[in-house]
Please model this.
Amino acid sequence: MALAAAELDRLDRQVLSLFSPSVRSGLLDYFARRPDAALTVQEIRLRKGRPVSIVRPDGDSLIQPLVTQDDIDKTLSLITDCSYYALENELANGYITVPGGHRVGLTGQTAVWADGSIRIREVSGFCFRVAREVKGVAERIIRHLMGPWPGRLASTLIISPPGCGKTTLLRDLCRLAGEGVPEIGLRPAQVGIVDERSEIAACHRGVPQHDVGPRADVLDRCPKARGMMMLQRSMGPGVIATDEIGSEEDARAVAAVLAGGASVLATCHGRDILQVKKQPHSAWLIEKGYFQKAVVLSRRLGPGTVEYVGDVNGHV
Amino acid sequence: MFELPVALVKGAGALSVIAAGTLIGLGLAGRLEEDLREMERLESLLIGLGTEISYALVPLPEALRKHGNRVGGAIGKVVSRIGELSGLERRRTLAEAASMALDEAAGLGEPPLLPFHAALLLDLARVLGTTGHKEQAAYIDHALASVRAHRRASEDELRKRARVYRYLGVLSSVSLVIVML
Model:
């Protein structure tokens, strides 16, 4: 109960206070009736002229009042810090990140500009994806990810289908790599994170909203391949982390970074290592020995279930 | 007991009346000239804001604080306060912050904003920060044009009135002294 109250307090400070008073009070009424929902809410969706939608793993609920244009205007003004113009490029991707690491997706009437970019001219809906940091998930597996060199992590591929906790594990590995783990002889390293989709560190104005450790340098919303090369040249990291590699360009950048001496922590979509080996560029990285370790996750016992951790070629 | 010569008392009284009248005239003229300076401050503020929005893409609350403090005066104080009260951290829209800052200024007995300036600030607060930078630049250009037009229209009149107040202060006090003598 105390946990739910604390979570509701956090939710109210970071998310609900971005809504107009009528929407906020409707949501607070809902959470007062169902305190446990504060712990499990995944998304809060606002659509103009329709009820507010609260999405949980077991379904969604529609609550009154109906969302008005004023509600939309107020929320848009707050999430953009009264500065829509300053976020135009970010908004072209369809989402922005607010303090706390919560991602806000926007919908509405769009316009295609001469340069081919798409801008949302009339915002009519928001999807707030509630971010929850799960610290400590990497602690029980990190001892299996030590590399051949003393004190350093092996280059590791984290594999799972979407929604199984790849990014959460990667974030926690970054934190531990930066802090070091003396018990297993892991020395603290400078960590470079290329966060193309703002999901690892969830930066707001370049400042990580999630704990990615004391030695993390983040390139937010930077294309992975170019970001990895930039970090290697400019920051001299011992570990480079990035999300969802898969293209040829990504594979070449990983190879270049590894040749430069850094370890790479990366995630990749797939059910298991065999499936990843069917993807040409990921297979190339594994066959050439660029990744030494792999972690396979599933949702079998809930998000973050570790199905395998160990040598990348040791799993069939 | 020692008595002051009557002529000396009369002279001192006459000088006091002339000085008081002159000061009242200068004060009234100074207030009109301050109105002109306020218009210049608002122009300078809008030019600064336009640059921040179009080129530096500085968040509006920060830009308002910076340029409000830079230009100073009554308008600068109110604008800087709008910057402090608005934004994500304060969970207030610009329009909410603007009406709050204007109410605060009135409540604290600050020198009042010219009605034209207060109306313009409220109008800008409704549209600033809500669109892309091109539209924002257009809004600011439009506001700047209207401030310039307003200043041009009232500048001559205000300067004439200021001169009249200065002369009137001196002349009316001299006239009063002549009548009293």
In short: The CA atoms of residues 22 and 105 of chain B lie 30 Å apart. Chain B touches chain A through 20 residues (CB under 8 Å). Chain B has a mean pLDDT of 87. Residues 6-26+38-180 of chain B form one domain.
